Amino acid sequence: MSWSTVIDIMYTIGEFAALGRVSVRMLRHYDAIGLLAPAQVDARTGYRLYAIDQLPLLLRIAELRELGVGLERIAVLAGAEDPDAALRSVLVERHRDLVASVTEDRQRIARIERRLRLLEGTTMSDVIYTSLSPVTVYAAHGVAQGMGNENIGPLIGPLIGRLDAALEAAGRPLIEPGIFWYDAQNEDGVGVHVSYVAEAEPVAGEGYDVVELPGFETAATLQHRGDMSGIGEAWSRLMEQIVADGYQVVGACREVYLEADGHVPGPDWLTELQAPVARA
Questions:
Q1: DSSP class of 52
Q2: Would 232 be classed as within a structural domain?
Q3: Degrees (nearest 5) of the Cα angle 23, 25, 30?
């Protein structure tokens, strides 16, 4: 026999599974969904037989599955005219998803650590009950689909930008601190309000409203140091303490940004949470 003779060797499903380091069950599944069909099926026995040139596809499928790529996405890749370009697109997409997942996991870990420190009594300032004086503000308003940073966060930036532009166009100063407050959720969503403190003699203008925020005899307050990733926990802590102390909330809650450099929340931001309350 000449060395140049091509010998076509067919592999049983068990042999091919071993070469690709996958299970026989997975090979049968790939066949069933049309992702990787055997090269031949014995008409008499029904045995599946695979060719060696099918191995690269199996290895790629196995690698992408280990990276968490879904079978539907792999199927599109397997039929691509330019496999390398398609593979690059899949890997870039998966890399982006993993980075986002890692970020979310880190935030969850940080929340767990903060919660553990809270249980140990080593974090978060105490809830303080105090009075709130009336304050006049320049405000802009929007509607979010629901509460939570994932719903309200994307709305805040455009709202602040719109308010800044309107006040600057009207020649009004941007007087800190910024004060945000939220309406109760209804069928339309949650009303979101952003504002700056107005001058002693407020001036009405286009693109913003002059709003008189009422004072309250008693308000529960809690200061949160850090960005908005932990603001939900701070609100939960405040509400838990209000209930434990025998109070109930009787008005719109506010976030007052006592220390905030720019519009991008950072670890050094200091936010005071305010909830008007009365004895339950």
A1: G
A2: yes
A3: 100
CA separation for the pair 258, 178 (Å, rounded): 8
| Domain count within the chain | 3
Is pLDDT above 70 for 2?
Answer: no
pLDDT tens readout for residues 120-136? 765 445 899 999 999 99
- Choosing from 59, 91, 123, the residue where a domain stops is 123
User: Does the pTM exceed 0.85?
Assistant: no
Residue 1 has pLDDT above 60, yes or no: no
CA neighbor of 36 nearest in space, from 20, 45, 46, 91: 20
What is the domain-level CATH number for residue 165? 3.20.80.10
186 half-sphere exposure, CB direction, 13 A CA radius = 7
Tell me how far CA of residue 155 lies from CA of 7, 167, 175, 223, in angstroms: 66, 19, 21, 23
What range defines the domain where residue 163 resides?
Answer: 128-279
Same domain, 101 and 151: no
DSSP string, 183-247: PPPBTTBEEEEEEEEPPSS----TT-EEEEEPPEEEEEEEEEES-GGGHHHHHHHHHHHHHHTTE
